[in-house]
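tool_call predict_complex ligand=copper (II) ion
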Amino acid sequence: MKIDASKPLEYSTEENSNKIFGFWVFLGAEIALFATLFTVYFVLVDRFASGPNGSELFEIGPVLLETFLLLTSSFTIGLAIHAMRHGYKKAMMFFFGITLLMGLGFLAIEITEFFTYVHEGATLQTSAFLSSLFVLLGTHGAHVTFGFLWGTAILIQIKRHGINPATANKSFIFSLYWHFLDVVWIFIFSYVYLKGLM
Amino acid sequence: MDLEKFKVHGGVLIYGAMVSIALATLAIIIGLTVFKKWGYLWREWLTTVDHKRIGVMYILAALLMLFRGGIDALMMRLQTAAPEMKFLDAQHYNEVFTTHGLIMILFMAMPFIIGLMNVIVPLQIGARDVAFPRLNAVSFWLFFFGAMLLNISFVIGGSPDAGWSAYFPLASIEFSPTVGNNYYSLALQISGIGTMLTGVNFIVTILKMRAPGMKLMRMPMFTWSVLITNVIIVFAFPVLTIALALMMFDRLFGSQFFTMANGGMDMLWANLFWVWGHPEVYIVILPAFGIYSDIISTFSKKNLYGYTSMVASMVIISLLSFLVWAHHFYTMGQGVMVNSFFSITTMAIAVPTGVKIFNWLFTLRKGRITFTTPMLYTLAFIPIFTIGGVTGVMLAMASADYQYHNTMFLVAHFHYVLIPGAVFAVIAGFHYWFPKVFGFRLNERLGKHAFWWIIISFNVAFFPLFILGLMGMTRRMYTYSAETGFGPLNMVSFAGALGLAIGFVILVYNIYWSTRYMPRDTTGDPWDARTLEWATNSPIPAYNFAVVPTVTDRDAFWVSKQENIPLFKDQIKKIHMPSNTGKPFILGVIFFFFGFFMVFSMWVPAIVSGVGILITLCAMSFDRDHGFYIPEKEIIATEKKLRGETV
Ligand code: HEM
Ligand SMILES: [Cu+2]
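tool_result ok
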């Protein structure tokens, strides 16, 4: 394995830089995926049948908290990558761990929200609007869940093997993924929640 | 548990299928045990990450699926051969045309093409492998087990029956209460994820792994077509992923996306399906264009005419392919403006396609043409595909389409595009590249026999359908009365279908015959060809090229032969290889069970297998295998042996 020392660790081998490029391409597919889901949501948003609509259902409090957690976690994963570039293993693991915990917090609130909705009689089956709402949020939430598990696996590998081209590469790709989920959430926050509350 | 829902009731045919599946499985198991091949199968194939072997497995699976889809086609043609036939009942006919369409497009044409591109593209760009060999294995096994999942629907629980386009509300739980469309949503999902990963893998491979000097505008046309196709895959497949997920939610969890009550919108399905569906037909046809381009230029002994315009027209086609989807449902009430827009975009596609046809003709002009089997398929493709294209423009005119929509005219049209556009291309590519992979050619005489059977029978089978369509015979119609007058032409078409079957039998027999009797090719270049894949030995050694080639021109190998410019300048050095892994296969198996349990709403086992999937992925992440090196001595020995020199 040729290691190019002039590049950051995560780019240092050909395989590494291919993986990062490949992940960007994959994010292209993810954008297409979420774009489709948003389209479905916009098509169905006014079709709430006999169920509640957005302004009756949404509450700004928990959503702001979710947004706060996810945006901050995007910042901390950035700090983790920064620490990684400087070779500070401890600091990196600390910020990485914080990121994952905030992701977990986000999930906890989202799940509570889902329970509240269902409790108020707004289920997946109630109306086309609610079906699309649950599936859009659920797909994002499932991505966060997957990210949590994936990130945990990476964290363990960093603990075991330290910062090397392989773990640096994985962490960097994970950070791309995590930022991406944040961007998607910003769209959800603005176009689903804020617009729905208006 | 309620065993009733696993059963399929359908008389002799179904039981026959069950028995033959059971017997075939038993025969394979016994065969492997008797000949002690389990270890070989596992070590050399099931765990392989070699792009050539993965490609070969794709092609084998595709041939198997061609057989299955072909049997479906024969059954349909037999059922409609004469008025009031009693061979299949209405439900059974519905299931057969649905699985025929799905299998032919998703599990035959596409994997065949992905198989060829696996084998050939890394060679054409002078690479040692694809960018992500393990991911490639994951792609294959997801495709394979997705295809298997759809195939068992025939004998366990019942096949999907709402057409390959599965329009709602017909495909909803209300009107299609069997598990058939659950299979649809899960089997396609699993294999679709595999395909999307293939897309990522090949984009990176082509953009990042080219040999020194292989600029983008020096790439062989097949590689270009594959690059563009994979871009389409990456942007189109996520739409299918969502459509299928929503379908699954509607059918399994009672959501209201496509329902008729509670705000659901059935047309949303039709739109999502075709936003993926139309690009999908270009996913199978663009690589075919690439294959034909390479073959035409090899067997005319000329470089491809209008290289740049070939690339440009493919790029334009790929963009337009995302803007035409509503031409599949002009008659479903979206108004004049929308129809006009889609009508114009659809007709516009004919322009870049026409450019390509003329480029091929100009390449042929004044060429020194040799009429080999692959070249014959290519030459036959041009006029037949043009008929398909012209009838396509007829269908593209929204107002005229009210006349043709959902008739046999349409069925004739899309077979006239798909069969020459995809099937002839993969057969041509198969004959063309066969010696590269196996080290001997297929017999030309048998090959030409099969060719004439296939070409003539194809027209006999499908031309009558144009006329039947104009006479008013609708598609997906399981029988008709004698008074309609549809009988005679349908009988002709049935005869054509039988002829096609004979052609395919000869083709398969040719593989068997050639394996036994054809002489070995030690040159590596039996066709006197032009592109890099012919510069290495056949069969291709595991490492592809002993030395990475240096490219100075388009048609690099041809130029190096003509002008004596050496392609391989470096010394032979040890080569790094990825090691095999069983995890992609295991992942595929677990996905299969996950899909199966979901189909039957068996939640606990489904969750258990879902966790299994996560654990396997985790195990893959923790893998710390860095591959191995093939030593210099071994490479030199292999090279000598393949060139027929004694070691
Ligand atoms: C090999 C010879 C083939 C024959 C004899 C054949 C015959 C047929 C017939 C009889 C139908 C149903 C017509 C109807 O009743 O509506 C049909 C439908 C169809 N065929 Fe083929 N076919 C062949 C090959 C292919 C290939 C190679 C492809 C694709 C690559 C293909 C794709 C389709 C599709 C998509 C449908 C529509 C299914 C639906 O209505 O949902 N066929 N074919
Ligand atoms: Cu179309």
